Structure formats: structure tokens, C-alpha cells
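Subgroup meeting minutes
Present: P.N., E.W., G.H.
Scribe: E.W.

1. P.N. recapped why we're keeping a running log of single-chain structure predictions: easier to compare across weeks, and new members can see raw inputs and outputs side by side.
2. G.H. added today's entry (418 aa).
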Amino acid sequence: MLAVLVLLIVFIISQGTGMEVLADQRVDEVSISLEELQNDIDINRLRHHVYVLASQEMKGRDVGSNEAERAISYIENKFKSYGLQPWFGEDYKQPITTGAGANVVALLPGFDPKLRHELVLVTAHHDHLGIREGLIYPGADDNISSVALMLETARILAKHSRVVKRSILFISFDAEEKPEGGTDKMGSGFFVNQLSNDNRQRIVLMIGMDLMAGEVIPALPGALFIMGAEKSLHLSRLIQSRTPIDGLNPVPLGLAMIEAVPYCPWCQHSVSDYDSFRQADIPFVFLSTGRSQYYHTPADTPSSLHYKKIERNAAYLLGLTLGAANDLEWINDYDHHAQDQSTDIASVASVLDAVLKQPPEGIRWDTFKSLHKAQDTVTEFSEKTDPLSWFEYRRLQSISLQMQCAVAKPSWRICPWF
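Output recorded in log:
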């Protein structure tokens, strides 16, 4: 009897010790720092995703093609291997019944009982232009660079899921390139239109990415343009509170600076999937390194990307995603028409100065001269104490368009006329 009692006591003590060890493990898991998570970023994994999905064998991942289906399967299998849950019952895929292709969606449940019903979305599109006139358009930067970032973020957060309070949806959209924006033939448009009212109201923030591996402005290395935060003070605070990353240069910029349309002052042209969420009044932040000279050309290959920049962008995305999942206040001040003129002026001035310090190779003299003249205008705007008038803000938009044209298409004659 005594022996049995001794064994029972030993068992209870051992169980208690095990519980203490488990508790310690939980504390360690919850208290893991952002820096430790960022140290888990694997540049070789990022590179592998790009070289697989943007290989010549993938033939540009045209919507509905066999190669696009292979890309979808690759992303789906990665989500499964990370232990993420399918969003559509038992399925990760959402066929786009209004058009072609399929979205791939996976869920990482949040750990906080009070916040886990809320959703943060991390998104990128995986389709590209396919084959045109016998040439393959690999679409490495557009947009497998972003898919790679999404996959690496999903892997790391799934591995350390107890640090995530809100639930996170990782979404790879199809059909971004070809359909007209604002239609449900786009993967993002279809996804939003198929959301139930309950799920739509659960979304705290959509983080969208497009073109995330270019160094388009040599004199402004590490530039990462962050757009959409001007629509909410809560979003602005989220962006401003990010921990600095060596070699990364976040550039906040209003969407108006990239959506302006030449010769049509009252028009705007959305440039990626974020617009589907904007039309549904869902807050978003859009990340991009900008259009390089390889944009929408056969030269957008895996070897043309800047992988150290992708690694730094992965660190930023990881921090932004965690900030949105854990710290962001519920956004109740969202205004699609809001502008931050002082930030736009400062950012345009910074980019313009960098473009003029190290002009793109092959830039036309008249374009260069026009940008110098524009620099004087931006300086005048920065010295104003009153808000810019409608016409002055339109002029700032035009200068932004000239810069984009000069960087992506330096030999175009039309750049100075934007």
C-alpha cells in the first residue's frame, strides 16, 4: 500500500512538473519577439517560390491555363503544409464562376477569444499575362514576388500561431491582370461579392501587395511605397509605429498620386486588387515597390529581382501583419476621400529628388528638364501654409505621373506631357 502511495505521489509530482514545463513553453511562445520572428525569414524559401512559380515552364500563368492551375496547386499545398485551415469548408480553392481561374484562401485562427472572430487579410495575386506573340511573360515581380512574401509570412505565423490575436486570412487572388477593374470576373471582386454580410463585417484590414521586388529608384534604395493609410488616423498610426528595418525605406503615399489619369482630371484608375475592397468600404493598405522597366515585359524574370529587398519587405510585412492582428484599433474613422497633402508633397519631393540625382538610363532630355521644373513647383507647394487648391493638388498628381513614366519608360516622348 505504501509503495502504491509513493508511486501516486511521484506521478502527481511528475505531472505537475510537466504542466509547469508546458506553461513555460506557452509563455515562451507568447512572448517571442518580432525580431525573433523576423529572424526566421528564409531568403532561400522566398527565392524558391519565385523560381518555381515564375519559371519558363509556368508560361506566364495565364488565367484558366494548365500552368495557372499548377500555380494554384502549389500555393494550396503550401498552405496545407503550414497547417492552415481551408476557408471554404474543406476546400482552399474558390473557383471564379463569373469568369475563369480560382482564388486560394487559408485561415490562421487567432488565439485571443475576444478578437479571434475578427479578420486581417494578407493578399497577393498569382496570375500574369501568359504568352503574347510567342513570348513568355514570366511575371516574377508581377506578382510572384508578393505571393512569395505572403507564403513566407503564412509559414512563420502558422509556426508561432499563439502570438496572433485576430484571425488571419491568406488569399492568393486570380484574374487580376485581364478583366476590367471593378468587375466580379476579377478574383478579388468575386471574393468580395461572395462574402456573407457577417464575414464582411469581421474584416478589420486588407493588406494588398503588388510588385514587391524592384529597385526602381537607385538613389532611393529600399523604397517601399505604402498607400491607403491616409484614409484613417488608426491606419496612419499603425504605419508610423512600425519598427525600422535596416535597408528598408518606407514611403507613405496617397493613392491619388498613383491613380490619377492623364488628361482626365476627374478620372482615377485603380492599379490592383485593393479596389475591390475599397468599393465594399473595407479598409486596406496597399504595398508596392513600384513599376520597373521590366513591368509587363518578358524580362520580368526571377533573375531580375532583388532578393535582399524581398527579404527586408518580408520583415516589414510580418511586422505590419502582426500589428494589424494584435494592436490595431477597430477602424471607425475610415474615409475613402481623405487626403494627407503634407505627406504627399514630402514623399513626391523625396522621390523626385532621387530621380533627378540618379536619372534612369536612357531618359529623354525633355523629360529630365520637365522634372527639374516640377521640382520648383513641389518646393513652392511645400512652403505653403494653406492647403493646396484642387488645381494645385492635380498638378502634384501630374508630377507623380511624370516621375512614374520617367522611371518605368524613360525613352517615352509622352512623359513630360502628363
